[in-house]
Design brief:
alpha/beta, Rossmann fold, 2 domains, 7-stranded parallel beta sheet, 6-stranded parallel beta sheet, 18 helices, 43% helix, globular, binds uridine-5'-diphosphate, quercetin 3-O-glucosyltransferase activity, Transferase, transferase
Length: 448
């Protein structure tokens, strides 16, 4: 690391946040920076996958806390409190010992790791925020803030179906939090905190300038710092493994035996799940569609269950040989495989980018946070996917799967996805917008 500028990265401890941060680390390393990843002990990245990075585990004292989805806000709050002093102490030691670590150029942190801002300010170190979502999602926060300021919350169920004024084509039901429910003050504060960028000198986005120019320029007026859109990160970065769970490679052998474009890949990412009834209806719908499928059922997938021993009775018998079940897939390899013709996704932003980059059209079933915005983009703006409507039943699943995988409509969706894939690839190639933005980012960090 001697003589190199060191960038300190502070990821948030969730798969969909760790992945882009580690990818950003690889991108910056390829531009000559050394990388130190300061991470919480909870959901720590697998250090052996990144032998050229340095890692620092920050004691977070959350081992005993409930890690259910409902309690994640409290876990995050504890991490923000408990990791502050360890990060500061470590950076002080690094700066006293520069010959070991190189000069610290800046700290780049995930937008939910708010404690970093105070540490950076107290040490007079420049910082930048990394946003792992779209610009449209960040703008959607304003809807929440405005409705709250005008005392209009909660909305009625029928209002949820209406379009948000001046925010085409998004509906109230696509906003960051269900607006028809009471929203505790604490939750509003959380959104306000993650929207703000404190003393950050710039924002790094996992999106592209040409993908959402309007939303980016509106936000630019708000934040008034340089934006660097260097996405899709996974195409800018040398490939790196970022999974927190073990990838089951068996499914690749299974895919090798399937016909081209025949398989529907079903995965709801690292957090979203289904209830028992939805699991069974999905299973029957997939089977009745007649298409082979590869379905990721994580160890905790059924909402409210503590493990998969609580999968519905008879589930595995129904699936039999008709589909391949895995606990965690090597998703990027799966989406690249020629047998995969569609992706039923919860529309996490990483999954959405990965699907587009391999030209795989989607069935969208968003669950929370930015997934509704991403889904709306896929189905109503880019026209590269179908919405899986609620409530889930076997007839609807069968019909939607066949529309995507068999019908002419599906072919058109695939062709549009492939067009988009080409545009994404152009943006990361020499002369493309993300490529240029990365050059500017590297220069910005060197001169900061
Ligand atoms: N992923 C994976 N294997 C799986 C499911 C997901 O490797 O079986 C990866 C996927 O490639 C993506 C990440 O996990 O990079 C999930 O991030 P995303 O933003 O899509 O969703 P989240 O998990 O944050 O809801």
């Amino acid at each position: 690391m001697l003589d190199r500028c060191c960038v300190v990265l502070v990821p948030a401890p969730f798969q969909g946040h760790i992945t882009p941060m580690l990818q950003l680390g690889s991108i910056l390393q390829s531009r000559g920076f050394s990388i130190l990843v300061a991470h919480s002990e909870y959901n720590a990245p697998e250090t052996s996958n990144h032998p050229s990075f340095s890692f620092l585990a920050l004691p977070d004292e959350v081992a005993e806390l409930d890690k259910s989805f409902e309690n994640m806000g409290n876990v995050l709050e504890a991490i923000n409190i408990n990791c502050k002093a360890p990060l500061k102490d470590c950076l002080v030691r690094m700066m006293e010992n520069e010959e070991l670590h190189g000069q610290v150029a800046c700290i780049i942190y995930d937008t939910v790791m708010k404690f970093v801002d105070a540490v950076a300010v107290s040490l007079k170190l420049p910082s930048m925020v990394m946003r792992p979502n779209t610009a449209a999602y960040v703008r959607a926060h304003h809807t929440l803030f405005d409705l709250q300021a005008e005392n209009c919350l909660p909305l009625s169920e029928s209002q949820m179906e209406e379009n948000v004024p001046n925010f085409h084509p998004f509906k109230f039901k696509d906003m960051p939090h269900p607006l028809s429910l009471e929203i505790p003050e604490k939750v509003i504060d959380f959104f306000k905190n993650t929207y703000a960028i404190g003393s950050s000198r710039a924002i790094i986005w996992n999106t592209m300038d040409e993908l959402e120019p309007h939303h980016l320029s509106k936000l630019q007026q708000d934040f008034n710092v340089p934006f660097f859109c260097v996405g899709p990160f996974h195409k800018m970065a040398p490939p790196c493994k970022t999974s927190l769970l073990n990838e089951d490679d068996y499914c690749m052998e299974w895919l090798d035996k399937q016909a081209p474009n025949s398989v529907l890949y079903v995965s709801l990412g690292s957090i979203a799940g289904m209830d028992e009834k939805e699991v069974m209806e999905t299973a029957w719908g997939l089977i009745n569609s007649g298409q082979p499928f590869l379905w990721v059922i994580r160890d905790i997938f059924v909402n409210g269950a503590k493990s998969n021993s609580q999968l519905p009775d008879g589930f595995e018998e129904i699936i039999g040989e008709k589909g391949c079940l895995v606990k965690w897939a090597p998703q990027m390899k799966v989406l690249k495989h020629s047998a995969v013709g569609g992706f039923w996704s919860h529309c996490g932003w990483n999954s959405t980018l990965e699907s587009i980059c391999e030209g795989v059209p989607m069935i969208c079933r968003p669950d929370f946070a930015d997934q509704f915005i991403n889904s709306r983009y896929v189905t109503h703006v880019w026209n590269i996917g179908l919405e899986m409507e609620c409530p889930l039943d076997r007839g609807r699943v069968e019909e939607t799967v066949r529309r995507l995988m068999v019908d002419e409509e599906g072919k058109e969706l695939r062709n549009r996805t492939i067009d988009m894939k080409h545009r994404f690839h152009e943006s990361v190639e020499k002369g493309g917008s993300s490529y240029q933005s990365l050059n500017q980012l590297a220069e910005f960090i060197f001169n900061i």
